Amino acid sequence: MSPIWIVVLAVALQAPSPGPPEADDRFRSGKTWEQFLESVSAQRELWLNTNAAATAPSELIERAKAASHGLRLVIVAEDWCPDSAYTVPYVASLARSSGIPLRILDRVTGEPLMLAHRTPDGRTATPTIVLWRNGRDAGAWVERPAELQRMFLSMSTNAESAERFSHRHTWYESDRGRTTLREVLALIEQTGEQK
Question: Residue 124 belongs to what H/E stretch?
């Protein structure tokens, strides 16, 4: 074998293998944030108001940029889902400001992603924010911030949690996406290599 072929073979063996072809197909079939927001009909005012308020702090943007190598975000969301309306605009703002490609899928197209990333109590839910790192599923943030998820999961045994969860819109509005962004960013950093 000639030396040139040995080099080509060695490079081919060391190159990362591409992710499953359906990952790229799924990403390409999704809507951009702008396309999704334009198509929203349920809870339109909530989506527009949250989007208008959604800005990512500059320090989070810089951290996301540093950890974004090979990263794409695929979000499964529906416009009727209040948790999506209160969180996805903030994640879209972080992605846009950090140069991270993002696409949004509906529940039907995104079902395999939701099945792979269930809630702590085993449900499939929106939003499901999946991190595709170099064409591979690297993890997901699902449904709502941890504090709200704890309230939700304890509602049947804790009347105070049930009462607080029934007013989760107040929690979301006062939090202004900060908790969601910190949790999603922590996952981005855990799954990536710093530049």
Answer: none
The reply to whether omega before 127 is within 30° of 0 (cis) is yes
Question: Is the separation of the CB atoms in 144 and 58 below 8 Å?
Answer: no
Token pair for 169: 């819109």
What are the beta bridge partners of residue 103? 74
Query: How far apart are alpha carbons 113 and 75 in whole angstroms?
Result: 9
Pick the CATH number of 18-143+178-191 from 2.60.40.10, 3.90.180.10, 3.40.30.10, 3.90.226.10: 3.40.30.10
Structure token pair of residue 144 = 């709502």
**pLDDT tens for each residue of the chain, 195 residues long:** 444 333 333 333 333 334 444 667 788 889 999 999 999 999 999 999 999 999 999 999 999 999 999 999 999 999 999 999 999 999 999 999 999 999 999 999 999 999 999 998 899 999 999 999 988 899 999 998 988 887 777 666 767 756 766 777 888 899 999 999 999 999 999 988 644
Residue type, 134: N
